[in-house]
Amino acid sequence: MGAIQTSESGTAGSGGADSGDAAFAREVREWLADNLAGEFSGLRGLGGPGREHEAFDERLAWDRHLAAAGWTCLGWPEQYGGRDASVRRQVIFHEEYAKANAPARVSHVGEELLGPTLLAFGTEEQKQRFLPGVRNVTELWCQGYSEPGAGSDLAAVSTAAQLDGDEWSITGQKIWTSLAHVADWCFVVARTEKGSSRHKGLSYLLVPMDQPGIEVRPIIQLTGSSEFNEVFFDDARTAADLVVGEPGQGWRVAMGTLAVERGISTLGQQIRFERELASIEELAQRSGADGDPAIAARIDDAWVGLRVLRAHALRTMGESGDEGGQASVGKLLWANWHRSLGELAMAVRGPAGLLAADDLDEWQRLYLFTRADTIYGGSNEVQRNIIAERVLGLPREARP
C-alpha cells in the first residue's frame, strides 16, 4: 500500500503547497532530526494513549525544549507567544512530527484544548495569566468533564460550585480524568445555579490541583497503566474571577473546547495510525496470516479507511464552530477505525495473541486500549445523538 502523502507533495491542506510551505516543512524536518538526538534520542515513539507513563519526565523536558525553540502553540497569535501559523503550516508541523516518530506530547491538554478555549472565550487577564504557562510548558492541565453518573452526557454533571466570598467552593467527583495525577490545573464544568438542569446553570472553572480539597485516585486500566483518574472535590477552591465566560454559561464554552478536541493534530495522529497499520501488515507477511483472504481484505479495508479519515480531516480543517457536526463525524470515523485496527492486530496474531507473559506485547496493548476509543472524548452514542439532533433535526432523545 502507498504511504500517506505529506506536505511537500501538496496534500496537507487544499490547493497544493507553495514554496514557503515546502521550506517550512524542511525546517521542521531538519530541526527534529538535529534535536531528537543526545539526551532525547531514546524518546522516539514513546508515550501516547495507553502509554502516557513511558518516560514522562523525559518527555516533559522534550516539550520544554520544543517550547524554547518556538515549536509550541504555532497557530496562536504572536502577542500570546504563537507564530500566527496558517492551518496548512500547523498541519505540516504535526505531520512532520509524526513522521519523525517524535515522542507523544505531555502538554497536549493545555495546548490543544485549554489554550484555544481561552483565546476564544477568556478575559485578557486570564489569557495573560495562563497562556504563557501553556506555551512554555511550565503548567500542565487536565480536563474535568466526565462524572460517574453522567459519563459522556456532559449536561448531566452534578459537581456543584457556589461563590463563597471571593472564591468558588467546588464539591463533587470527576472520572476518566487523563493525566490528573501530574496536572497543575484542571478546567472543570460544574453546576453553579441551584435547581438548574441539563445545559443551563453550568460554569467553566479553572481550578488549581495542588490543594487540600482535591484528591486524585489513579484508575488501573486493562493495559496495566493508569493515565486515567478519579478526582474528588471536597470544598476545593478557586478564585471568583477564574470562570471562563459568564457564570451559568459554561455549556457554550465547554462545547467550544469539544469542537477543538480533535483539531489540526489529527493529521499527525493519522500518521501514527498508518505506522501501526504498516507494522500489522509486516507482521501478517512474516507470519503468513496475509494468505488468509479474510485478513488480507481487512488490511485493505483499513488502508482505505485511513484515506477516508484524512480526506475528512483535510476537508473540514480550519472550519469555525461545528454547525455541521464535523467534530462528531470525525470522532466517529477515527475511533471506530482505530478500534477495528486493534481487532485486526489480534486476528493477525492468531491464538498466540491470547497469551500474555509478564507484560503485554504492543499488539495486545493496542487491542485493549482501543476498546476505549469509542468511549472517551464522547462515546459513539453521544456523537450520533449530536448529529441526529443538531444536524439532521431529528426529535431529541427522551431524557429523565
General description of the model:
- By secondary structure, the chain is an alpha+beta fold.
- The chain folds into 3 domains: about 5-105, Butyryl-Coa Dehydrogenase, subunit A, domain 1, CATH 1.10.540; about 140-250, Butyryl-CoA Dehydrogenase, subunit A, domain 2 (Beta Barrel), CATH 2.40.110; about 260-390, Butyryl-CoA Dehydrogenase, subunit A, domain 3 (Up-down Bundle), CATH 1.20.140.10.
- Helix content is about 45%, strand content about 10%.
- It contains 11 helices and 8 strands.
- The protein has helices spanning about 20-35, 55-70, 85-100, 110-120, 125-135, 250-260, 265-285, 295-315, 325-350, 360-370, 380-390, and strands at about 140-145, 160-165, 165-175, 185-190, 200-210, 215-220, 230-240, 245.
- It has a 4-stranded mixed β-sheet.
- Strand 2 and strand 3 (about 165-175) form a beta hairpin.
- Helix 8 (about 295-315) runs antiparallel to helix 9.
- Belongs to the acyl-CoA dehydrogenase family.
- This is Acyl-CoA dehydrogenase family protein.
- Its cofactor is FAD.
- It holds the Pfam family Acyl-CoA_dh_N.
- It comes from Nocardia jiangsuensis.
